[in-house]
């Protein structure tokens, strides 16, 4: 059995420095790599557009690199064309240029190949950097049509949330996907609660990077932006207006007994299986509590249908609105 000495207790500081240095080294290498791919794509793009090269020359380039740089990976014909597409897609787009080098080449390719609109690409670039998504989680969020859902259904919040926690509008969602829980159709609140605890890591990823877990049947804490406690009340049925009264009671107890002096007033989230948006609007308009009402969904949404709705949304929007995220 290893004994903890006073010196051993300070070892964590050194291991943190090592980990931080490793992360910096990884980011530095990634920045150089993405920059290299960008410039290779730029050269290929200019050569092809000027008719100096035909598409067949790219295959010759791939063969030349394989012969002169044995063991070097990532420069196949297919990947060289991706570098060209990468450059042509983002050239002149100063809003996202700084984001590209903060993501791996794999994540950049996922966004490039699976996003249809410029606004969608920018959205996922920013979210992937902010949330530090893995490639697996990025693909999950795109498959779950996060962009379409955020644009079409912004979070439902009470007026007090808008006044006291404006940043909450960019943190919370109108619906949360919990398909990873594997819940049956007739699940109870206890089933939902226990499943969330068992799959806590996945649930926190779905909530967003601003959240950390405090304890079971206890609030979640938002850090970084608002630094406040968040009480999440689970309901396996449809939202009912009287739920807000109970949530207000919880929030008052948190603010009086648990909230620290430097923290903002607590926020409340009612997470229901379904909701009528008109009922939600009426209920939230007069409540004096900082509350949000959202759905949890046990199955991935129909991405094709959401894309069609988003297309209709953009057709009806003014040019100014189209550029907003």
Features:
325 residues; alpha/beta; 7-stranded mixed sheet; 58% helix
What is the topological layout?
Layout: H1 6-9, H2 11-49, H3 55-68, H4 77-90, H5 94-100, H6 105-114, H7 118-131, H8 135-143, H9 146-152, E1 156-157, H10 159-164, H11 168-171, E2 175-177, H12 189-198, H13 200-207, E3 211-213, E4 220-222, E5 228-238, H14 243-257, E6 264-274, H15 277-286, E7 291-297, H16 303-316, H17 319-322
Parallel strand pairs: 2-7, 5-6, 6-7
Antiparallel strand pairs: 1-7, 3-4, 4-5
How is this structure best described in words?
The chain is of the alpha/beta class and 325 residues long. Helix content is 58%, strand content 12%. The chain contains 17 helices and seven strands. The protein has helices at 6-9, 11-49, 55-68, 77-90, 94-100, 105-114, 118-131, 135-143, 146-152, 159-164, 168-171, 189-198, 200-207, 243-257, 277-286, 303-316, 319-322; strands spanning 156-157, 175-177, 211-213, 220-222, 228-238, 264-274, 291-297. Strands 1, 2, 3, 4, 5, 6 and 7 form a seven-stranded mixed sheet that branches. Strand 6, helix 15 (277-286) and strand 7 (291-297) form a beta-alpha-beta unit. Helix 2 crosses helix 4 (77-90). The longest helix has 39 residues, at 11-49. It starts with 5 loop residues before the first helix and ends with a helix. Residues 218-225 have low confidence and may be disordered.
């Amino acid at each position: 059995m290893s004994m903890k000495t006073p010196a051993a207790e300070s070892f964590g500081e050194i291991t943190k420095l090592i980990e931080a240095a490793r992360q910096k080294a990884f980011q530095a290498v990634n920045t150089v790599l993405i920059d290299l791919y960008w410039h290779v794509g730029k050269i290929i793009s200019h050569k092809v557009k000027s008719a100096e090269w035909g598409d067949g020359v790219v295959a010759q380039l791939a063969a030349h690199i394989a012969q002169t740089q044995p063991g070097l990976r990532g420069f196949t014909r297919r990947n060289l064309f991706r570098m060209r597409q990468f450059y042509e897609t983002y050239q002149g787009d100063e809003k996202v240029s700084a984001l590209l080098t903060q993501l791996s080449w794999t994540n950049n390719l996922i966004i490039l190949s699976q996003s249809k609109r410029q606004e969608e690409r920018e959205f996922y670039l920013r979210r992937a950097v902010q949330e530090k998504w893995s490639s697996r989680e990025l693909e999950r969020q795109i498959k779950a049509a996060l962009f379409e859902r955020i644009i079409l259904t912004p979070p439902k919040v009470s007026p007090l949330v808008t006044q006291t926690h404006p940043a909450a509008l960019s943190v919370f969602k109108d619906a949360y996907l919990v398909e990873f829980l594997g819940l049956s159709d007739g699940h109870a609140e206890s089933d939902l609660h226990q499943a969330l605890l068992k799959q806590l890591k996945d649930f926190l990823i779905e909530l967003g990077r601003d959240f950390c877990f405090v304890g079971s049947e206890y609030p979640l804490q938002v850090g970084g932006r608002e630094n406040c406690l968040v009480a999440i009340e689970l309901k396996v049925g449809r939202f009912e207006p009287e739920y807000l009264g109970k949530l207000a009671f919880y929030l008052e107890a948190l603010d009086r007994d648990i909230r620290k002096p430097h923290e903002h007033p607590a926020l409340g989230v009612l997470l229901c299986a379904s909701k009528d948006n008109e009922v939600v609007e009426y209920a939230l308009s007069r409540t004096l509590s900082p509350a949000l009402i959202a759905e949890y969904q046990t199955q991935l949404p129909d991405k094709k249908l959401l894309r069609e709705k988003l297309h209709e949304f953009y057709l009806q929007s003014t040019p100014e609105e189209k550029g907003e995220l």
